[in-house]
Each structure stands twice: as C-alpha cells, then as structure tokens.
Amino acid sequence: MLHVFGESHAREGWNQLEPRCLVPGKVSIHCAQSDPPLMHSIGKKGLEVLDITRVGVRDGDIIIFCYGEVDCRCHIYKHLEQGLDYVVNNLAIDYMNTIALNVKRYKDLRVGVYNVLPPAKKSRTWDNPSLPFLGTDEERLSYVIALNNKLEQACKEHGYIFVDIFKDYADSEGFMNPALSSDGLHISDPIGLARCLNRLFFRS
User: Fold this and answer.
1) 14, 193 Cβ separation under 8 angstroms
2) Can you give the pLDDT at residue 126?
3) Is the pLDDT of residue 204 over 70?
4) Contact (CB, 8 A) for 168 and 160
5) For residue 36, what pLDDT is reported?
6) 5 forms bridges with which residues in the sheet?
7) 115 secondary structure, DSSP code
8) What is the predicted pLDDT for the residue at 128?
9) Verdict on whether the full-model pTM lies above 0.85
C-alpha cells in the first residue's frame, strides 16, 4: 500500500492515482482537513504531531511525506533575519529527524519525501487571509528552491527517496503551471506525479 501524509498537497493529484489506475495498488491519503501541521511543527513536536503508527502502516508499505508548501508561503519570510540558509537548513533537519523517528519503528518501509511544489503566483490564485502569501513571488520561489535542495540532500543522507516533480509542474519561470492546476496552487493533472512514482517505486 502507498500511504501519503501531508497537507492539501498530499491530497490534490494524489486522490486521482488509485481511481484512475495510475499506480499499482491502493493509495491511502492521510491529510488534515483543517489546521494541517507545518513542516516546522512536525520538526519541533515530533511524534506528537506526526505518528504513522496510528493509521495502520505496515512493513512493506510505501510512505511519502508531503509538507512544506505552507511554510514557504506563509512563514519563512517572517524569520529571514536569521538568514534563508539557516532557516531552511533547520526546517529540513528537524523534519527529517521526525520522519526518522517514525521510520525506525519498522523493519521494512520504502520512504519518500515529496518536494515542495512550484509556488503559486499570487495573481493567479486566491489569497487566503489565514494563510497569506508573504514575500514577493520571486522571493517565495527562492524559498522553495532552497528548501527542496536541503530536502534532497537530507534524503541522500537518510537513505530516503526524494520525490521530485517540480519541473513537471513548473512554468517557464518556475511557478505553478496554471494549465496543470485547478486553482493556481495545487496540481490537477496527476500524470507527471504518476510517472515519477512509477519510476521511483514501481519501475514501470
């Protein structure tokens, strides 16, 4: 079974994989409908926030963790006095440590960490006042790129798979391609996602 843990980006696109038979087997999505945890809170609070044993994960399953978009959209900007590299490095390290706490309780899991998707251009989507866009479009793009680079590096160190579909869904400037999104923020076309998952996990 494929389990996906995350915020709304673990639902949109992923929820079309099983119904359309785009990947083998069952896809189980574990996504909070309101107040989803941040990558930051997962890293700081550990198993209190993210505990995969609560939902029936078993040895042999594929587990993919999908967090970080809200951190890049709303929160990194507020901490830049510490420097972007410092902020994203600590985000990635703490997040990956919590993932490791979960994984070590199993003998045989295939573990993936999802990239942060191309950010939305503010003019192309609704600006939710409770999850505001902080920083210019270009600044938020730089946050995403920096965090993805750290996540990819951390995956190599931990032996996890980095699930990278950034280029599949980015426009020529690096932002979410509106033709592949229903709202400018989330992916709507699951084909690029399915192609990546099959290559990384199912070898088809």
Assistant:
1) yes
2) 84
3) no
4) no
5) 75
6) 30, 65
7) P
8) 84
9) yes
The structure tokens listed for 58 are 């078993």
Does position 35 have pLDDT exceeding 90, yes or no?
Answer: no
Say whether pLDDT at 32 is over 80. no
Domains and CATH numbers, the chain: 2-202 (3.40.50.1110)
Burial 13-26 (b: 16+ CB within 10 A, else e): bbebbbeeebbeee
DSSP state of 187: B
Residue 131 backbone dihedrals phi, psi, to 5 degrees: -135, 70
Condensed to tens digits (0 to 9), the pLDDT of residues 60-102 reads 999 999 999 999 999 999 999 999 999 999 999 999 999 999 9
Taking residue 82's Cβ as centre, other Cβ atoms within 10 Å add up to: 9
Nearest CA to 189 among 72, 7, 15, 4?
Answer: 15
Contacts of 64 (CB under 8 A, 6+ apart): 2, 3, 4, 5, 6, 10, 111, 112, 113, 114, 163
The phi and psi torsions of 27 (rounded to 5 degrees) equal -115, 120
d(CA 171, CA 123) in angstroms, rounded, equals 15
Question: Could you tell me the two tokens for 115?
Answer: 């990239």
CB 14 within 8 A of CB 27: yes
Q: What is the distance, to the nearest Å, from the Cα of residue 135 to the centroid of all Cα atoms in its chain? A: 20
pLDDT in tens, 98-144: 999 999 999 999 999 999 999 999 999 988 888 899 999 999 999 99
